Amino acid sequence: MKIPGPNRVTPAIHKKSGLFYYLWSSGSTRVLGLACYNADMLQDQVPSPLKKSAAFIGLVMGTALVGFVFGLIAAFIGASILQGDSTGFGSPVGAPAGMIIGYPIGVMIGIFVISKLLRYRGSLLLGVVGSILGVVIPIGLAELLDLNANPDLLWVLILLMPPLLGTAGFHLMGRKVTKEAPSQE
Description:
The protein is of the alpha+beta class. The protein has helices at residues 39-45, 49-81, 90-117, 124-140, 151-172; strands at residues 7-13, 19-26, 29-37.
């Protein structure tokens, strides 16, 4: 069967996906021909390990900063609520308790805000679980590991673990699917 009109084959690259294809046209008939991926274009879309590490460290630092701000606010609220206690020890108990409660909440909010602002893909649910575990693990293991004898180390772990575990949990499910070339059968 012969199709009337001039035959034309046009190579093209789809800008977003990197799909390389040929478009065969004859008159008003167009047929999509051989399709394969442009490996050079896909190579540019894959972030380097350095960029991934910088994004992870940036998210950890950003969530720690937001968590610290929320922790300070919660510490002041906790100290002011327990200030009028009859024994006089309300503020020294309320401030650390407020910090321990407010810091992971701030880390969770930081993960949500920073991921939306910078358009990171990930699992917010696993980020929340990681932030909660970041406080529960050091406090739960404090007696077993004798962290009560060194309160500075306990506080360092309480301040480091929520952003680290929260960001790690956030990144667990947020991996981008790599594009593979279609099989040539």
